[in-house]
Structure formats: C-alpha cells, structure tokens
Specification:
Layout lengths: L1 H12 L7 H6 L16 E7 L15 E8 L2 E10 L6 E11 L4 E4 L2 E3 L2 E2 L3 E6 L7 E2 L2 E8 L4 E5 L4 E4 L9
C-alpha cells in the first residue's frame, strides 16, 4: 500500500505536463482579472470565498479571497484570487494558479481538516467512495490556497480528511 501511495505521489509531481499547450496558455492568469467563465475547454467546478468561520471569525476582515477549481478532462486548475474594489462590484485578481493531474477515481474537494481542525484554505485530491463516507480519508495530495503567502502550496496528506457533502443522502 505504501509503495502505491509513493507511486501516486510521483505521478502527481509530474502532473502539470499532462495538459495541452493551449490549456496551459489559458491559465496564464496571475495578476489578471479572474474571468467570469473559464476559457474552453475548462469548466467551473467550484468557486467560493475562503473564509474563517465560527465565533473568532472577523466578518469585516479585508481583503476577501476566493478559491476556484476549474476542470478539463483529467486535469484541474486551482486558482487563488483576491478581491479589489471596483465601481459597482468587486473584481477578482488572480494571485496563483496550480494545475493538477487527477487520476481516475479521484477528485478535488475542500471542506477539509488538518489534524482535526477545520482549515478553509485546504483543498485535497481524494479517492471517490460509494457510498459516501462521513470523511474522505484516502487523500493522495493536499494543497493550501494560502492567503498570507498569496500562493498555492503543496502539503503532505498526513492528518488531512475532508467532509463528504452528500453523507447520509445515498439511496439505499
């Protein structure tokens, strides 16, 4: 099992070469405004604020940050962006982009914990399971969309688990 995980890790380390040149060119977004829709062949999978929740969260904290996931075939793009004031509505400026190759049977998710503590900056590449478990624990890779460093960092998968949004809703 350990050798399989090491092999998967090696595959992920060279994963960025799997996208076509056109797809890679379309992701040269750093410093530019995040488009409302991803360029073809990319499709929007997830887009939402990266924010702390709970009693210690400061709702007035600025700037706002967003984590976006685009998908194209067996690749995903993780995008970290920051809001800037603009007349009428905020505009989102891209701070970092990372392409990740997704092996068959895996997908990227958020709502993850590190050592039992919720971390809104975590995204993980997890094994798809049916029926949906309460927690995805088969984590192949983990990523931090770091607001403080304004970049996307690769993390060890140890101690990371992610909630399954449809837990308990499986048809029996």
């Amino acid at each position: 099992m350990r050798s399989w995980i090491l092999l998967l890790g090696a595959l992920l380390s060279v994963a960025t070469t799997a996208c076509t040149r056109a797809e890679t060119e379309q992701l040269r977004l750093v410093g530019k405004e995040l488009p409302r829709r991803p360029p073809a062949p990319w499709v929007d999978v997830r887009d939402g604020l990266i924010e702390d929740r709970g009693p210690k969260a400061d709702a007035s904290a600025r700037p706002l940050f967003s984590g976006t996931v685009w998908s194209s075939g067996d690749a995903v793009a993780l995008i970290l962006s920051q809001s800037e004031s603009a007349a009428g509505s905020p505009r989102w400026v891209v701070l970092a982009v990372m392409q990740v190759q997704v092996p068959r049977g895996y997908f990227v998710t958020d709502l993850c914990e590190l050592d039992g503590r919720t971390d809104p900056e975590l995204f993980a590449l997890v094994a798809s399971e049916v029926p949906c478990p309460r927690w995805y624990t088969q984590v192949a890779a983990a990523f931090r969309l770091s607001r403080s460093n304004r970049r996307i960092e690769t993390l060890p998968a140890r101690g990371i688990r992610c909630a399954c949004m449809s837990y308990g809703m499986d048809a029996r």
